[in-house]
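Regression report. Comparing outputs from two consecutive submissions.

Submission 1:
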Amino acid sequence: MISVVLLNWKRPDNIKNQILPSLVKYRLINEIIISHGIRETQFDYESEHCQMVHRNDEENNKIYGLALRFLSAQSAKNDIVLILDDDLLPPEKTIEKLYHSFQLQPDRLHGIWGRKPDYYHNYNYKNVYGEVLISLTKCLLMPKQLATEFFNYQHLVLDLVKNHTPLWNGEDIFLSLVSIVVFGNLPFAYRLSIKKLPEGDVAINAGKGHLPSRINLLKYAVQRLDLNSYLSTTKLSKYDLNILCTHLHNSVSKRIRKE
């Protein structure tokens, strides 16, 4: 069975009115954990079909930022956790596909949004599929174990993320890299359907430093996790990563984009 983790920040209507009414009915989901990071948007929601866990994480949000989702995942009752953004609603068949894939390969991340830096993509914002370096946490099925591993390794990059806007921007990059260290497998991204919900003004106000901070985190996290040797044996070579970082640094002065 699957535990779902949702961060409630500024889009509670999406969660209350669209995401939860659907997810509580999905056969494979028997627990939904909602981390309320802002007091003003907290709400109550109960279901007879699924166990609901409401966390008051206002203070933790100030410490962990986007990594709060992994803190919440550590408390899940299931060993399989679905990390989901509050502006997305995956159909039940999408969840079933991710779950089936996870059962076949439990030692890797399984997601829908992939980033594969190489000669052709150069961290292109277009989604890519198959084995990828980074699987975004927009909709991601992961073993609960990786939530703990994330914090076991976070000390290596805390100096890089402490001033990110929002805090711990790039948590998906670091989780993906940690998963490679722990399991020795690249994350996998699938071409699956998902419904996009209203974003509101959250994306607009995400912060001007979004792209540069992700570039910096990727560059140094690969080094500090000592992944260059492993990546040199895959299609994601060290040379490819150098090209990625150079390309992105050159593009920062021309354009700041969000994910």
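Submission 2:
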Amino acid sequence: MKPRENSNQEIEIKPFGSYLEVDNEGYIINPASLKKIQEEWKPVIQDVIEAYKGHFGKTLKNVYIRGSVAKGEAIKGLSDIDSFAYIDLPKASIDTDWEEEAEGKIKQKHPFIEGVELMCRPFVIGPMNIILLNQSVCVYGNPLDVQRVKPGKEMMIHIPNLEKRVEILEQKLNNAHSEEEAKSACIWFAKDMLRTGFELVMERVNKYTRDLYPCYKTFAEYYPEKEPQMREMLHYALNPVSDIQKIRELRDRFAPWIIEEVKKQYPI
């Protein structure tokens, strides 16, 4: 996700977002549907498909869209296009160097979108892919059959790699050579902490969401003493800063605690 161009306009925290519904057996109901996609977003999706096709040709098997666009809840100026594609190649052969340039071209052509995420995966269905597929819609190729999932450990993708992801932030900051790159790292980390915080309480509430406000709100109900820090994360996810030292301070105030809490709640 690219940071917004007009960084002087602060975005206010508002109670946007929802939890995924579950059926009578407790399985997640996929909220994404082709019928829900708003008309003005369809040309953007087509350009995303063409970007994948142009680079991978016949090895492109499927393209999926998730998030607010797939749920028909996209908001101009706030929502981005979250996409991923399955490529019929080994992981080592999948080139990703083209993605950033392609994302920039799509964003430039459609300035009302917040950003674009292109993500390429080998044609193998693993645990993380199952989680994504249960909340995404196929917009190119044949939809894949996927097993159903329930809220709980099998839907945790942040907690299992928490310490590694904190290390990745430092790599991102070290490689940030512009304000935009530093802001992107800030957004990435803040969102990561919000979703990790929600995963801490997901089994207790028996719900699932990736939406930022419900992540913050649900976490705060179980950890009220940490509410100010998590609200700060939400603020910086919406209003990123380019000050690398400030981002590191944000990390150092919160990451050590949540790492220890995860170890306490989910000991190896």
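Expected: both submissions complete independently.
Actual: both completed, but the second showed a warning that disappeared on reload.
Relevant detail on submission 2: The radius of gyration is 18 Å.
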